[in-house]
Specification:
It is built from 14 helices and 10 strands. By secondary structure, the protein is of the alpha/beta class. Strands 2-1-3-4-5 form a 5-stranded parallel sheet, sandwiched between helices.
């Protein structure tokens, strides 16, 4: 693929993308060192078959739940759901029930988003038996400090470098995501097994050299659509937000599931659209992804349709595609980390191509690194 720009001096965003594999391994080893403390906190809660586990956060932090809740629910057999703090704050009684024991797992880069702090307070107000697991990147944040002074909470601090200084969350989201998986599914996600994910992602990052290469093709895209099934739809959502944030909205971005895309959203595809299909590794789900991939290419409406997958197939190789570096067979929950790396690099490249400073893309100041202007209204339930 052709060159689009020379990146020049490195940005915080680029540095934070590159540091991810190392940060993941540091965090997972920290989790293992804290295992006895984590078990002492969680084990009594997990014995309650009526426990509801809510994965929550604001913005990108909320998408962690979208990606991992389906797999965690299946793997643990627990009632695990993803609900953004932005929904919990506006409609608390839709998700928080007084008589249902609840573990609120809060993800936060800064820990200072008004909705995230308010969600914890609301849960304590409404739910009779409520506990909190705070997974955050900022030791000085309100969420972390409040949790360390609460008898119903445990706070897990991510490595300091993951408190991303760039505008868009990159190493913060993936490190919190890996850490939560390690907390609840240590038999599958741990420092030994996850080394394969880190190594594969290191190879992806190395393959992109100085990030001046157009990941999905050097074309004048005006729209991008990311598609993924199951938890990969969460990855598609995060990928879409990343390019929207880093291009300050100059590149319109959308997401959906491959099967859902046919039901109306497909109408937005035109000759200025890039479609990226994140192909599942699950043999059954993969069939649906490949069906839509072939259909989109037959339609010949999009400027470019790119498949990103771990394994080759005739359908994938019939058009533009990216195959992940060779590795053991990955679960989709592991594959998501690889897909996010490509999406982050693409968003950064498009930001630079558009002449935007990726660390501070919102020149008008209308969108901020930590959201502002939110009024939290008192709950009177």
């Amino acid at each position: 693929m052709s060159r689009t720009h020379t990146s020049g001096t490195s940005t915080w965003t680029e540095k934070e993308i590159r540091q991810q594999p190392t940060s993941w391994m540091t965090s997972l080893k920290n989790i293992e060192n804290l295992r006895s403390r984590i078990t002492a906190f969680l084990a009594p809660l997990l014995q309650d078959s009526n426990l509801k586990i809510i994965l929550t956060g604001a913005g990108t932090s909320a998408f962690i739940g979208d990606m991992i809740a389906p797999w965690l629910a299946r793997h643990t057999g627990k009632n695990v759901v993803a609900v953004p703090t932005t929904d919990l704050v506006t409609n608390p009684v839709d998700y928080l029930y007084a008589e249902q024991p609840t573990l609120l797992v809060s993800f936060a880069r800064s820990g200072n988003s008004p909705e995230s702090v308010a969600a914890v307070d609301l849960a304590n107000q409404i739910v009779r038996h409520c506990h909190h697991l705070v997974i955050t990147c900022n030791e000085a944040g309100s969420l972390y400090n409040n949790a360390t002074h609460s008898d119903n909470a445990l706070a897990l601090l991510m490595p300091a470098e993951t408190h991303d200084r760039g505008f868009a969350m990159t190493s913060s989201i993936t490190t919190m995501m890996a850490s939560c998986l390690a907390v609840f599914a240590a038999d599958v996600i741990n420092s030994a097994s996850f080394q394969d994910v880190a190594t594969r992602c290191e190879r992806i990052i190395a393959s992109q050299e100085d990030f001046s290469t157009a990941v999905f093709g050097d074309l004048p895209f005006k729209r991008i659509v990311y598609l993924g099934s199951g938890g990969l739809q969460g990855a598609a959502r995060e990928a879409a937000l990343k390019v929207l944030e880093l291009t300050a909205g100059k590149l319109a971005a959308f997401y959906d599931s491959p099967t859902g895309f046919r039901h109306g959203p497909k109408s937005l595809v035109n000759d200025e659209t890039l479609v990226v299909v994140m192909v599942s590794s699950h043999p059954y789900t993969r069939q649906y992804d490949l069906d839509l991939l072939a259909e989109l290419r037959r339609d010949q409406q999009a400027m470019r349709v790119v498949a990103i997958a771990a394994a080759a197939s005739a359908e994938i190789e019939a058009g533009p595609h990216i195959l992940l570096p060779a590795a053991r067979e990955f679960l989709d929950i592991e594959q998501a980390f690889c897909f996010l790396i490509y999406a982050q690099i693409f968003a950064l490249t498009e930001s630079m191509k558009a002449g935007i400073t990726p660390d501070t893309p919102s020149a008008s100041g209308t969108v901020n690194r930590v959201v502002q202007g939110v009024v939290i209204h008192p709950w009177k339930g």
